[in-house]
Automatic annotation (TrEMBL):
Coiled coil: none annotated. This is Carboxypeptidase. It holds the Pfam family Peptidase_S10. It is an enzyme of class 3 (hydrolase). The keyword Signal applies. PANTHER family: SERINE CARBOXYPEPTIDASE CTSA-4.1, SERINE PROTEASE FAMILY S10 SERINE CARBOXYPEPTIDASE. Its EC number is 3.4.16.-. Belongs to the peptidase S10 family.
Length: 505
């Protein structure tokens, strides 16, 4: 069990036990509709009367005419984190007392016109606070935070180009929770809640209705996002039948993701035993490479037969565990950071990604939780081990996510798959294997394209190729968390993608 938890931590930075609110914490929904100062909330209805500008720094309960059984609790946090843009924080009840937490920031550029983006982190079980405060969000947390104002604006934030909400999902992750003991243990159940969230969000805030939507995230987000996007697309039919505006889904952006576990398992020997640009020498030594070659062959034989060709749960689980121990975790043989092969430290060790310790400390400060409208006494943790274990036990990792990518492309939903080139855990070699291998009508033309140099401000920043709505981008000197390692270059490719529909042109 200890080995399994250690392996799970590869995609759960700073993994630690997650505590649900106690009985004392989990007061009923009505009591949460009164803020810490005792001021009663305002209920605004119908949906057509609701605007973001009408929301103040006290909680408002917003009722959508189309979703009368669901409520949005939202408050303004404008002036905090990003003084240059209006911001909001709140919960959306997606049914049965399941409340998903979100932080929303308007665009710094043209909020009344710019598209809307969603960002999620991976895990499964990682809070989107990683992205918000450590990567692409409007502010960064100062070292050793003591107050709500211990933040510094991020000049490379993605809200330079888009209105963006950071979503903690599924329930039990970050500040999201359920009042009736519900749990989510696979991507398809998670998709139901995310679709409900997106539909209610756009229906509630009418000024966003019909606006372009781009779904983005990283790591296990490569498994989440294609399924979420497909569910959003398919759910539009019911909206149209009901005379409502469909969700204007335009694209999916996957950063160092996992749309194809099997290609990634195939890639580790190549990543570890061949010279990689940006890394001095090979990651693994000769003996380790010989062992990994044999382990990979056995791993792929078992998982191809019992997980991929036909799904046999018991044998698939045995193969999956073998692969995770003997292949996926091979970077540990060389004491290499799984998120950045240039580093020889692991998340949680002193001096290794201390930013995540600061984020967790910041989000447990009482004045921060008051500012964000979090229930009193809530214990925030960056990762939810229980969620990750449920997904692992359900063998969710073994799903054929690339099939969803193919179907999205056939329907005109663009996909940007980007990868930092010194990441191990979802490395660029595995990304190239799966993206050239999966079947779709543009496969032959896409594969015929060659990777071309991609430059930012006249300096080479990576490699890119595109065809028919699919773009593959490799980013130099970046690991698993590209916007953290290369914030300016990440902002550059985002702008190109949103403005031109492609990167590099």
């Amino acid at each position: 069990m200890r080995a399994q938890l250690a392996l799970l931590a590869l995609l759960l930075p700073l993994a630690s036990a997650f505590r649900l609110p106690t009985v004392g914490d989990a007061v009923d929904f009505a009591s949460l509709l009164v803020d810490d100062r005792g001021a009663a909330d305002t209920v605004l209805a119908p949906a057509s009367d609701i605007t973001l500008a009408s929301v103040t720094d006290e909680y408002h309960v917003l009722v959508s005419a189309a979703h009368p059984r669901h409520k949005v609790r939202v408050k303004s946090t404008t002036g905090w984190c990003d003084p240059s843009a209006r911001s909001y924080s709140g919960y959306l009840d997606v049914g049965g007392g399941k409340e998903l937490y979100f932080a929303y920031f308007e665009s710094r550029r043209a909020p009344s016109k710019d598209p809307v983006m969603m960002w999620i982190n991976g895990g499964p079980g990682s809070s989107s606070a990683m992205g918000l405060y450590g990567e692409l969000g409007p502010c960064r947390i100062n070292p050793g935070p003591k107050t709500v104002n211990d933040t510094t604006p991020n000049p490379h934030s993605w809200n330079n180009e888009a209105n963006i909400f950071f979503l903690d999902q599924p329930i039990d992750v970050g500040f999201s929770h359920a009042h009736n003991g519900q749990v989510v243990g696979n991507v398809h159940d998670a998709a139901k809640d995310v679709v409900a969230f997106i539909q209610i969000f756009f229906d509630t805030f009418k000024e966003l209705e019909g606006r372009e939507l781009h779904l983005s995230g990283e790591s296990y987000g490569g498994r989440y996002l294609p399924v979420f996007a497909s569910a959003v697309y398919d759910a539009n039919a019911a909206l149209v039948d009901a005379g409502k505006t469909p969700i204007n889904l335009q694209s999916v952006l996957i950063g160092n993701g996992l749309p194809d576990l099997y290609s990634m398992l195939e890639s580790f020997r190549l990543m570890g035993c061949q010279q990689q640009e940006g890394i001095n020498g090979t990651i693994l030594n000769i003996d380790q490479c010989i062992a990994l070659r044999a382990n990979t062959a056995k791993c792929l034989e078992i998982t191809t037969k019992h997980c991929l060709d036909r799904f046999e749960p018991v044998d698939c689980a045995i193969g999956f565990d073998y692969c995770m121990i003997e292949v996926f975790s091979a970077s540990r043989w060389a004491h290499v950071n799984p998120y950045d092969a240039r580093l020889h430290c692991f998340p949680g060790e002193p001096g290794c990604y201390s930013v995540f310790d600061d984020i967790e400390a910041y989000l447990n400060l009482p004045d921060v939780q008051h500012k964000l409208g979090i229930p009193k006494g809530y214990k925030y943790e960056m990762t939810a081990i229980d969620v990750g274990e449920r997904f692992r036990g359900a063998l969710d990792w073994t799903g054929k996510t690339w099939e969803y990518v193919a179907e999205l492309l056939e329907r005109g939903v663009r996909v940007l798959n980007y990868a930092g080139m010194v990441d191990w855990v979802c490395n660029h070699v595995g990304q190239e294997i799966w993206i050239d291998k999966f079947d779709w009508t543009g496969k032959a033309a896409f594969n015929a394209e060659k990777l071309a140099d991609w430059s930012v401000d006249g300096k080479k920043a990576g490699y890119v190729k595109s065809h028919g709505g699919l773009t593959f981008l490799k980013i130099l000197d970046a690991g698993h968390m590209v916007p953290m390692d290369q914030p300016a270059n990440a902002a550059a490719f985002l702008k190109q993608w949103l403005d031109n529909g492609v990167v590099g042109k």
